[in-house]
Structure formats: C-alpha cells, structure tokens
Write a structure and sequence with these properties.
Radius of gyration: 26 Å
Largest sheet: 6 strands, mixed
Strand content: 15-25%
Structural class: alpha/beta
Strand order of the largest sheet: 2-1-3-8-7-6
Distance between the termini: 20 Å
Amino acid sequence: MIQLRRYLVNISSRYHASSNTRVMLVHGKSSGEHPTAGIIVVGDEILKAQVKDTNSFYASSLLYKHGIRVQKIAIIQDNVEDIAKAIKYFSANFNYVFTTGGIGPTHDDVTYEAVALGFNDTLHYHPRLVDIIKNQFGCNSFPSPAYKMAYIPKKSTFKFGTNEVTGETFPYPCVVVENVYIFPGSPKFFESSFQSLCKELFAGYKRFATAEVFINAGEDSFAHILNDVVQNYPNVSFGSYPECNRYYKARVTIESEDERDTEAARKMFCSQISSAVLVRYDRTPHIDSLSKYEKLLDTLKRPSIYEKPFEIFLKHYRKPEDVWVYFDGSAESVISVHLARVAVEKLGHPSETKLHGIYLEQSDDSRTDMNRFLQEISQRYNVELCSLGSNKRITIRPELRILLLGRRSNDNKKEVYERVAQLSADSFPSVQIHFPLMDWTDEDVTTFVSSLSLPYYTTDQPRSYR
C-alpha cells in the first residue's frame, strides 16, 4: 500500500510552507469556524480486545459531519492517574474533550475520580443524581454500588439531552467538567446521548466542504495526477485510500473550507483521470431510495423489467407487518430488501417502518463474514431478521402472510429456495410465496446492483461485498 496521503502532505508542506495550507493539520485549540476535539476511550476491555471500540468511530464521524476537527484519540487503561493525565492534556489542547467508558457502578469505573484529579477537584454525591438513581433506576438503599454513578466532581454541570426517536429527555445526563464531556461506554447509550449533544452544541458551526472520488484503479496509476492537484490547491486537503470494494479500488477525499475550492479541485483531478476508471458510487443507496430508483428507470432502455416486480412489492407492502423477505446476502436478496424499502417509501409509510426478513442459520465458522454482512444490511435497511434454523425448527411470527424470494428461472440455488418454501408450507400453510425477480436475467441483476451501488455477498469474494 502506498502511503500517498503522508507523501502528498510532505510534498505540499515543502512547496507551500508560507501559505495557509489546509493539508497540514491544525493542532491545539481553534478560535475559528472549526473547533478541535479529542476523544478518550477508557477501559481495560478495549486494550485486551475483549470489547470492540465503536464509540470513537461513531463520535469522530458525527463530529466531522458537524464541522469539528478530531485531532487525537487515546485509549486508556482503568487507571486513575493515567486517565487524569490524559484529561489534563486533552483539555488544555483541544476545544472539546469527550470521554467514553468508566462511569458505571463497579470497582474499575474510575473516570469521575480521574476527572476530579485532573482538575484538582473533589467528589461528592450530587443530590440530583442521587434522586435519579433512587427514583428512576429503582435503587432504594443508600449507599449501594449504583450510587457510584452519582459520585461526581463538584465542578460538574449537566446536559440531559433528548432522545431523537422518542422525544423524551434522557434520564441520566452527560456530566460536564469545564470542556470535558463524560459519556458511558455502552454504545447503545453513548450513541443516542452523543447525537443529542452534537445537535445542541454544534448546530451553528460551518460544515466542511467535502467530495469523494471513486477510482477502479490502484493508487500508483494516479499518484502523479493527485500530486499536481495538491500543488494547485494549497487550501484544499486530499486523502487517498486503497479499499476492498467490488465497485472500486481506491477512494480519494477532497476537503476545504469553501465549496467552490473543493469543486474546482475535484474537477481538475477528475479531468485528468481516465473516464474508464472513474466510478459513480453511492455510499448510501438506502437513503432517499425512491428518487434514486425513479432516476434509474429514466436512464434505462427497458425500465419495464424493473417496474413489473416493483408493482408486486407495492401490492404487498401496503401492510409491511405481513411481509417477509428471504435474505441470504446474494444480489437477488439484497435487491428484494432494497425494493421493499423503496415500496415502503413510495406508499408513504413512516421512515422508521421495520422490514422483516428470514435467513438460514449458518453453523459453519467460515460464514462469519456473511453473518456480519447480513447484520450490516439489516441495520442499514432497518430489517428485523429471524433465523430459519438449520434443524428445521422455525420461529416465525404468526402475522407472517407473504414471503418474497429473489429466486430466478436460471438460479442455481433451487434447493435452498425449495427448502425454504417446503418448511414454510409445512409449518405455515397459509403463507403466500412469491418470486418477484423470476424473469430477470443475470444482466438485469448486474445492471440494477451496479447502477445503485448495492452491496452483496459472494462466497468466492467474501470481503468484496461493500
């Protein structure tokens, strides 16, 4: 892998040392339109790889979208002195500091103690938190381990935040000491609370002007072109990343403070890249899926081949709770899930409407990649997945009325589909089974998934599903 980003940054800094280049990171606190941030992840379980850290990734992504520059992420063991040292450094060097983890009721939850040490503060039982833990968490006896969550630095203030889904105020607040915002480690609670805080704190900040270019070629084929563009646009930041994706091999990011600069740099770069390797790729085909589907139909010579099965989805998804899609990660099954989401949007159902899917349970350890893919798609499309057990024991909700399968006339998965159909027929004889894609050819499938950038799973290329 070519370390192209670092190479280009070094080149640009030499050629433009006197300019206000945006390729170089701005370290320290910022008084401009884009504040800086640091993230501290607390927990031995992260360092021991017993738990995967997803919070820093989630926070960095959301902060970037709000125009905040994340400049450092640290993972610290459950040690008061180490955490306190990190708190002091981060607080002095970044506008905002976010911690995650270490605020529960157990002996190794020491973040509050460390924050107090870092700010030369003392701890006390805050009466409002004591009341919350007593009345909302049902802990009557004081003291008990749960009340450790009320034992916080005296300088603390609170930001409760609002649940974006329910509209209700969170029962437990984000505790704030100076510019340090303290969050729990559980992703479930962290993500909803952090999202609410970002919306409150950063609503008025200017967003970064960004663009992405996807190229179906290696970095070495366009490194010289990107270097030329870097030198022509010193106020624009560039990044190049080789990626494993079935539609492209490299992704180039372009970022600046001004939309015009970003667009001009993008146009210059793309004008020098062969059109044969430039890829139109959509990272979020599930968002605004109806308009994207309709635009696709407008570009096709034979739109009817896609309109006919969509009518089947429209017919059945008038009652989404009655319909289930068979999902095995194949292109056909992903198309079925996608068309289900398009139909739900077309019919005017609420955006949070759940889809329902069934899948064959895999016991083989080698299927881990596929199971991960199934979960990714289910989260993306808001699909509730139900396992169709390998031992022919099925647990399907009684409201199931219609089962949609992506089987085609030339499909080589006949045995799998027949098995699903037989199991359903044996256990739920009232279930209707339909095959909306029956008349599609391989070319029809390829055109649909590639035009909309739909990911799918193949056993010969397990990591090329994104």
